[in-house]
Amino acid sequence: MLTCARHLTRYHGPSFHRSYTGTAFPLSLLHGLWNVFPPHHFQWHLMAPPWVFRGKKGLRQGDPMSPGLFLLCMEYFSRLIKRKTTDSDFNFHPKCEKLKITHLLFADDLMMFSRGDLPSVHILMECLQEFRDVSGLSVNASKSSIFTAGIENNMLRDILARTEFTRGEMPVRYLGIPLAAQRLSVRDYSPLVDQIANNISRWAAKSLSFAGRLELIRSVIQGVECFWLQIFPLPAAVVEKIHRLCRNFLWNSKRAPVAWEDICHPKNEGGLGIRHTQTWNVALLARVLWNIHRKADTLWVQWVDAVYLKGGSVWDWQPKKGDSPLLQRLAEIRNRIINAFGTTEAAIQHMAGWSSSKGLDTSQAYEYFRPKRAKQPWQTVIWKAFIPPKYSFILWLGLRGRLSTRDRLMFLQEDSSCSLCINMQETAKHLFFECPFSNFVWTNIRQAWHQTAHVHTTQCGEMAH
After folding, report:
1. Which helix (H) or strand (E) holds 125?
2. What is the total count of domains within the chain?
3. Where in this chain does the record put each Reverse transcriptase domain (predicted)?
4. Within a 10 A sphere around the Cβ of 131, how many other Cβ atoms?
């Protein structure tokens, strides 16, 4: 795993021109880009007269053309390594030989693959050195590591001496997620849990309503989860940690009046519309399964098809003991769908109903996998666009009989009498509809709106139960 030490501010005209001479790029394009690198003059107005100096490089840091030119230069590097690895001395990594994969690039991070022998490593290092001479981009050895497996100590010493890189140990974080050669432990998911905890600790200092907290969980926390859930099958212990963090945040670290499992149902079923992490994980992995089935045009799908399926169907493939936990989980999801619909053909036909030209619709997949409950008619009353969300949330709690009225706090040895009239026990129904003060408020509302109907919660309360 390599990191470039310098970026496009290092590039200059002659280097760029040499890099692309002989490529398929039109000369008119190359000459146009050549003109991007004229000498620049700068003025410092810290004193009079201003100090004028000339820039040595054509591009400045933050230049809008830098990303595009960086991609062009990485294209040159890809062509270079493709040409160099045709040498008979180069041996592909055993898992990369069928597709002839030699490297992966993301921004200025580079991963290179080969068999663990000195001639192959030597050819890769020659590619890096030639690219450095042409472009000015060199490898940052202090941020680069080499990962090996099954190599004898003598060969390993020679490889480390040739590369001057340190030997890395897995798991290692790459693009924010851990890479490992074996099943991840619960501790390896700590970056995800820590990121969620850090967001929550930032919000905890703010004065937020229940509805505001709910929206942050739905839009931010579950957005963070989604990146991981479509890559890894999360262990139950990690899911429970995430649920605990979200539950404590939603209820302000107090006792939860409604179970998290009840919250993770659609609003028309009496929930709050939050997606259950484990079920959402299954739905996202079902999309991965569907991409493998339709042989989507991605390198990872092509690699799985070549190395594991060997050109066969994912519906017939059986995982082995040492296969990736992700692939084993995909096989479990596949078997679950087949068992539900009886045959492979029926399962494929049903999943095709979830998909479009862009791939499988994970919302439909989630709807299939999630547990169902009876629809609650009273939900249509409280979730209205014109009702402020915090009021809808309080009404939702009230209809479920979960407001912290004094009749529900008797275990704290609190006085259970109504805080407004002090005559009757404080229940949700009494507080909002039977108390003299509440009656006075409702009477004025009816008069202002010219209404004659009386408002009560008996019917909705019975529906809630």
Report:
1. helix 118-135
2. 3
3. 1-179
4. 21
Say if residue 443 is in the same domain as residue 303.
no
Question: Are 143 and 24 found together in one domain?
Answer: yes
Within a domain: 184: no
Separation of alpha carbons 101 and 98, rounded Å? 8
Question: Per-10-residue mean pLDDT for the chain, 465 residues long?
Answer: 46 54 62 58 54 56 67 84 94 94 85 94 94 82 88 92 90 87 92 95 87 94 94 95 95 89 94 95 97 94 95 93 92 96 95 87 95 88 89 89 81 79 86 88 86 59 44
Phi-psi region of 413 (alpha: psi -120 to 50; beta: other; left: phi over 0): left
Write out the DSSP string of 182-214: SPPPGGGGHHHHHHHHHHHHHHHTS---HHHHH
| Alpha-carbon distance values, 303 to 100, 101, 292, 330 (Å) | 10, 9, 10, 16
Domain end position, chosen among 321, 344, 369: 369
The dihedral sign for the CA sequence 8, 14, 17, 18: negative
Last-in-domain residue among 141, 169, 197: 169
Contacts of 377 (CB under 8 A, 6+ apart): 463
Which residue reads 């340190």 in tokens? 166
Q: How far apart are CA 52 and CA 37, in angstroms?
A: 19
Is the domain of 432 the same as that of 343?
no
Residue with tokens 């979200």: 246
Same domain, 365 and 436: no
- Distance between CA atoms of 5 and 128, rounded to whole angstroms? 12
Tokens (6 digits) for 266: 């659609």
Contacts of 149 (CB under 8 A, 6+ apart): 116, 181
Torsion angles phi and psi, residue 139, rounded to 5: -80, 135
Q: How many helices (H) and strands (E) does the chain have?
A: 20, 11
Same domain, 342 and 433: no
Point out which residues pair with 112 in neighbouring strands. Answer: 103
- List C-alpha distances in Å: 428 to 387, 408, 425: 20, 10, 10
Please report where in the chains the tokens 């002090």 appear, as a residue.
Answer: 422
Are the beta carbons of 132 and 138 closer than 8 angstroms? Answer: yes
Q: Which domain holds residue 325?
A: 280-369
